[in-house]
Amino acid sequence: MGAIALRRVEKTYGGGPKGNKVIHGVDAEIADGEFIVIVGPSGCGKSTLLRMVAGLEEITGGEIDIGGRVVNELEPAERDIAMVFQNYALYPHMSVYDNMAYGLKIKKVPKPEIDARVHKAAKILELGELLERKPRQLSGGQRQRVAMGRAIVRQPQVFLFDEPLSNLDAKLRAQTRLEIQKLHRELGVTSLFVTHDQVEAMTLAQRMIVMNAGRIEQMGTPEAVYGRPATTFVASFIGAPPMNLVPGQATAAGFEVGGQVLALPAPAPRPGALLLGARPEHVAMDPQGAWPFHVDVVETLGAERLVYGQLAGASFTLRMDGTLPAPGPGEWLRLAIEPRHLHWFDPASGQRVEGSHG
Q1: Is the confidence at residue 177, as pLDDT, over 60?
Q2: What is the DSSP string of 67-122?
């Protein structure tokens, strides 16, 4: 059983008043066999959290439980985990076969079993024809598959991936994502995958943890995180381009922004200062639309266009189908949005404000 429980996990570098706290009481329950992606910007603490699960960083407070036992005091080798790093960490003088087998040889696993495990992993990862090659004879994608193979042969309770795709080009990243999904379906091993790339997070995760400044901002399925962001940080981090966040005042007449009152398709959840959230893809051009939008710049991206401009003086982005006629800079458009696509946030706390449509 590879379930993971993080209970009030903390990490502080240094002691006394000058101590730098980087992880602030993280709580998370990860089910056996689940694929969890930890996503967030550089410096948010995601890799530190992963390294604490691995035992490569000591924890300052709290508990880490893997497979029903607290592992705070256990060495990495005793935690029954396997880690795949960003830089592959292959032995350059060893063949692919020996790189994959090395950890098992150290553990004195019988040679026939080593051979069976390596060939099984090689078959899963389509490395069978490369087993006699050295790492220098492989592409970046092949090296990363070898690193994954080395983890697979260990047959651990938990796989830990630390930004394993960041050294690959865009095409290889997409291909390796598919391989990782296939691998998880086949093996069903509990996996923690760290990335700063929201596309990786959205495509790989069964559930995702969005981190910010050493805290969990939101944990949920990609659909839930995208569809109902818990904070303005999540709303602006998940989604490309990010969600539009327009500050204003909710009144009985609508939403007042920069001296203009925008009619709303559904009432705001409360009167007073709010941030209105609207994803660029959920706003549509509509001659009868209630929101006047001034076009500043249009970017054509093939299948779609991004239209940047002003909504009542506030910066606003519209995503439109690339087959539609492109508006020109300086043009005025009318925009409409369905009530279910409106999001509301508290401007002071950044927390989501729920209402009949929020």
Answers
A1: yes
A2: TTEE-TTS-GGGTTEEEE-TT----TTS-HHHHHHHHHHHTT--HHHHHHHHHHHH
CB atoms within 10 A of CB 324: 10
Residue pair 48/22 in contact (Cβ under 8 Å)? The answer is yes
Q: Do residues 274 and 348 make contact, with C-beta atoms less than 8 angstroms apart?
A: no
Q: Is there a domain that residue 236 lies in?
A: no
- Looking at the structure, do residues 148 and 254 belong to the same domain, yes or no? no
**1 pLDDT more than 80:** no
The residues, any chain, with a CB within 8 Å of residue 48's CB and separated by 6 or more, are: 11, 22, 23, 57
Which residue do the tokens 């009530």 mark? Answer: 339
C-alpha distances (whole Å) from 7 to each of 47, 65, 265, 298 are 17, 8, 42, 47
Write down the pLDDT at residue 357. 44
3-class secondary-structure state, position 62: strand
Owning domain of residue 296: 241-345
Euclidean distance between CA atoms 145 and 220, whole angstroms: 28
Indicate the pTM of the whole model: 0.89
Say yes or no: 74 and 197 in one domain: yes
Provide the strand spans (E) within the chain: 4-13, 20-30, 35-39, 61-66, 69-70, 81-84, 158-162, 190-195, 207-212, 215-220, 244-251, 254-257, 260-262, 272-278, 283-285, 291-300, 304-311, 314-321, 332-337, 343-345
CA–CA gap between residue 26 and residue 216 (Å, rounded): 7
Let me know whether 221 and 278 are in one domain: no
Total structural domains within the chain:
2
